[in-house]
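Thought: the user asked what Peptidase U32 looks like in 3D. I have the sequence; next I should run the structure tool and report back without guessing.
Action: structure_tool
Action Input:
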Amino acid sequence: MNQPAKSGKIPELMMGVKNRASLSACKDYADGVYFSVDRFSLRARACDITLDDLNSFVTDVKEQDMNAYLTLNTVIYPDDLPELDEVIDAVASSDVDAVIAWDPAVITKAVDAGLRVHISTQANVSNWQTVNFYASLGASRVVLARELSLEQIKDIRQNTDTELEVFIHGAMCQAISGRCYLSAYILGKSGNCGECSQPCRWGWKLVGEDGSEVDIEGKYLLSARDLCMIEHIPELIDAGVDAFKVEGRLRDTRYTSTVSRCYREALDAYREGTYTQEKAASWKEEMASVFNRGFSTGFYFGVPGPDGMAIERDMNISVIKRQAVGVVTNYYRKQGAAEVKLLETSLEVGDDILIEGKNTYLEQKVKEIRNDDGPVQNAKPGDVVGLAIEGKVRENDRVYKLEVPA
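Observation:
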């Protein structure tokens, strides 16, 4: 059954991006993107955007009529303060719409520089008085703790005028608001400084105090399912939050494209009064075809139980896998073709492929393959062939085949 058309405010849809390729993947669907430069980010591996490149990247975001939010949400140590000043100065001279932070050093420096500040979920804001406290420091928006229920979010909304943002999709962390020390303790790689090695996704042994070991049959005891709220869009909008946030800056561009499109369609359907649970189930199925660890509703409807854990598999359970094919060695714009060297696996006409690089995102079917003798039906590893291409690609872009494993 369709919902009646809505005239109220639709929350801003924010996607995490790591480079221009992922920006391109969501440009037709998201209202804003959050990203990091090569320092002070909880996603240190997402470092394709450097401080020197900040102005250029933000310009690209603005050209797509999107908002640009920079994350500066790591722990700040004494030795970091001079470099933090350098970053704040660079951000202040850019068109960044806000910085996402929780460390008071970042908050005060950003506010003093005249920047808008959004409080990161790392601050674990869980009540309206804390929201108003951060607002008194100059924050214009607060990203609420992921451990809140929908009813608690409604209570916060009723008691503050500050903008509120919530996560609606993506990886869930075992630790409260991601404040985890497991990676730092085991490997010396601090999750709070952007180097989390995700030991919660490992296989663990359960050992008693007497040294006896419990057989857990290869289960992953600490690995949480991904959050997915596509089936609860009306409840989330009615709660009155201002922005919906999707986690996944380190995931591939196909994830970014598919998830942003599904949530955009869901939000538009709600506005138009055409949102249904049947459509929501279809969108959820589409998102299950890209990287995921299984889905749950997190803490929105209560503390997660066993159904919130991905105990059978540690990582991606998507039915569609990316199989590496080869690399682009040349691009011929006038001919609409790319020269590709096949390195890992074969390719044939009709295959679904993805071409990806720091600045490239292109998904299409293989319509034509050519070698020195003309059109061919397939090619094997070691071959160098020409592919008909439906968009611009670049030398050294990687080519992947999308397939359902047998």
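Thought: the tool returned a structure. Summarizing for the user.
Final Answer: Structure for Peptidase U32 predicted. The chain has two domains: 12-308, 321-403. Residues 253-272 form the longest helix (20 residues).
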